[in-house]
Amino acid sequence: MVAVTARACANIALVKYWGKRDAALNLPAAGSLSLTLAALATETTVAFDPALSDDTVELDGAPARREDVARVTRFLDLVRSQAGVHVRARVVTRNEFPTASGLASSASGFAALAIAATRAAGLHLAPRDLSILARRGSGSAARSIFGGFVRMHAGGTSAEAFAEPVASPLAERVRMVIAIVGGGTPKLHGSRDAMEHTAKTSPLYRGWLDQVPRDLAAVEAALAAGDLDALGPIVEANALAMHASAIAARPPVLYWRPATLAVLAVVRGLRECGIAAWPTIDAGPHVKVLTTAEDAPTIAMQLRNLDGVTAVTISAAGEPAYAFDPARIVALPGPS
Ligand code: 2P0
Questions:
Q1: Confidence (pLDDT) at 223
Q2: Are strands 32-48 and 149-152 parallel, antiparallel or unpaired?
Q3: Where in the chain are the domains?
Q4: Does domain 4-169+323-328 have CATH number 3.30.230.10?
């Protein structure tokens, strides 16, 4: 049986996805817009094998948890039904992340899985169809099929809820400084349940949904103009608005730790000193700081010294996801 390996990068949303309008098809309640991150990659190999009685999943060198295997099987069932394949698969996946957890591994994970599984099953899907398929695994994975800046459409139907790249003169210049807070321990609230709970119980959720289209339009305009000073404040405000809606849920969903707030304060101080720096926060305590290639080392140096910040990584924009043959990669001869 043919084994196919694919590589995908995680992404950070500049305008967040927070809430669904259809859980079964995993349709988002609103659009979103992200930056794919070169520093956070996942490689996944898939082989369909008639000798297997169940799908097997190895994650970072160890058997995956039962619930993760079940989620992969549900996803592979979609691929099997599209391809007319009836055999089980062996899935081996590895995250090249700076720390163990708390970063967006479901985005890169399901993007890499969508490509490796479809190719291994004999399907050659166009990027848009891969994005629609990856969305079924995880909403943010639809965006990780593409590189650079990426917009996700809420769409009317499932076939319209896909991501696509957004060209911008900022793609080369921007960096994300990723500050890991709390050593990458597992997050308190899974984002899937937390967004559903927020949508159901937060009095601020309606306001969040009303704001997203305005933020998307402003971010698209800033990207088209290559205007980082216009982009940054919207990115910060959008992340804080998402968290405000979650914090107002009953009971509350609060991802922040003391070090999260310490990073926000340092970033604000740096900005007052003329450094380009705007923070964003996903469903966890970590902070990612939007900046430029020139200012990223200064920000990283400041954040490394903070209590509770356990690792800092600088990432450039990442490439689109792709499949490759690991056997064909040959080491170049080193200096003799
Ligand atoms: C985002 N997040 O736009 C937002 C911001 C977290 C905070 O997408 O249920 O793991 O698998 O579709 O993609 C995390 O949500 O959710 C996420 P599912 P996903 O990046």
A1: 98
A2: antiparallel
A3: 4-169+323-328, 174-315
A4: yes
What is the number of alpha carbons within 13 Å of residue 270 lying toward its C-beta? Answer: 23
What pTM did the predictor assign? Answer: 0.95
Q: What is the residue-averaged pLDDT of the chain?
A: 94
CA distance 111 to 114: 5
Q: 292, 166, 280: which is closest to 225 by C-alpha?
A: 166
Distance 318 CA to ligand 1 centre (A): 18
pLDDT tens digits, 213-228: 999 999 999 999 999 9
In DSSP notation, 307-331 reads TTEEEEEEE-BPPPPEEE-GGG--P
In the numeric block, the tokens 């079924």 are attached to: 136
Q: Determine which residue's CA is closest to atom 7 belonging to ligand 1.
A: 282
Q: How far is the CA of 281 from the centre of ligand 1 (A)?
A: 12
174-315, which class in CATH? alpha beta
- Could you tell me if the CB of 140 is within 6 A of ligand 1? yes
Q: Angle 21-194-79 (CA atoms, 0-180°, nearest 5)?
A: 55
Name residue, tokens 């599984």.
Answer: 117
CA 63 – CA 68 distance, rounded (Å): 10
Range with the lowest mean pLDDT among 1-5, 129-133, 161-165, 271-275? 1-5
CA atoms within 13 A on the CB side of 255: 29
